[in-house]
Amino acid sequence: MTDTLGWGVIGIGDIVTTTMAPAMTSEPECDLVAGVSRDQGRADAFAHQFGARFAYTSYNDMLANPEVEAVFIATPNVFHAEQVEMAARAGKHVLCDKPLAIDVRGARRAVEACAAAGVTLGVNFHNRQLPWVRDVSRLIGDGVIGEVKVVQLQVASGTRHYDNWRADPKMAGLGTVHNVGVHGLDFLRVLLHSDPTEVMAMFDRAPGRDGVEMLALIQLRFRNGTLVQYNANEVVRDPLNDIVIYGTEGRVVGRGFTRSRSDGQLAVLTQAGETITRYPAPEAHRLSLAAFTRAVLTGEEPDATGMDGLRSAQICEAIGKSAAEGRLVPVAYR
């Protein structure tokens, strides 16, 4: 096993400059080698700021650099699948920001390309690194609150107004579902140890209108029988970002921490009484990067695999179809 993993970054917007690049410079097992931007000046500025040794305007040129062993992809959603395939053909491991692709076909191509090349593919579902997610997943798995019947969940960013590619469905795919909603859809799978089988969704954007949705109300039935009410949005000024999980033997209430950068508190009620635990917000993006890096260096499977990205795409496809057609839609795991 080598001591470090050489990283290249394509897409040097806010998510990279505020979280991932600082993490790559602070994590001892990460070596930030290169960045790519369409503008050489931006690429040079990025390299200077974070100590990268190379600054490119060509993704192919970066992929040809043998010092780059892994790539983090943070470009507009529509490019993710193709750029994963390109990295796989170049023999690079890939950590892709969510979503893995804007459709199921692209997500499957990305997974198959990495499998064929023998490289590791992960998706930046960083909420999996939140301590409360791991604790509640274990609690539910151990049957502490019995059989889970109902979950009520909100994941919301606060009010946003997009005037960039995120407002264009051809570039973004879905709107708030791909921006913030995929995180809740992913950690629900982790918490419930199950996958959704059917969905019913309603968007604030009426079917047939241009633009992307900024609010999605989603109901899901999971294979284990759990029913979920999910509010994912970028329009509410003062979101609670709570989760309530009702079981046959108790209840779990998480206050204020379904987004990764907020502190929160967890109340677990059983026949034995109620316990309350505070959870300070960790640096979830850094933890996600460190976990993926460690998985590559040790030859283990990452926390959120390419298959998790494909599952997310399949669920999102059903959600978009339900909202467009106004009906209950089964999730097709094909």
What features would you describe in this structure?
There is one protein chain. The strands form 2 sheets. A 9-stranded mixed β-sheet has the order 14-13-12-11-7-10-9-8-15. β11 and β12 form a beta hairpin. α5 (104-117) runs antiparallel to α10 (306-325) and α8 packs across α10 (306-325). It has 334 residues and is of the alpha/beta class. The chain has 2 domains: 5-125 and 286-303, 3-Layer(aba) Sandwich (Rossmann fold), CATH 3.40.50; 127-282 and 314-330, Dihydrodipicolinate Reductase, domain 2 (2-Layer Sandwich). The chain has helices at 14-26, 40-50, 59-63, 80-89, 104-117, 131-141, 169-172, 176-192, 284-298, 306-325; strands at residues 5-10, 30-36, 54-56, 70-73, 93-96, 121-123, 148-156, 196-203, 215-222, 227-233, 243-247, 250-255, 264-270, 273-279, 329-330. The protein is 36% helix and 26% strand. The longest helix has 20 residues, at 306-325. The protein has 10 helices and 15 strands.
Tag the structure with descriptive keywords.
334 residues; Rossmann fold; Dihydrodipicolinate Reductase, domain 2; 9-stranded mixed beta sheet; 6-stranded parallel beta sheet; 36% helix
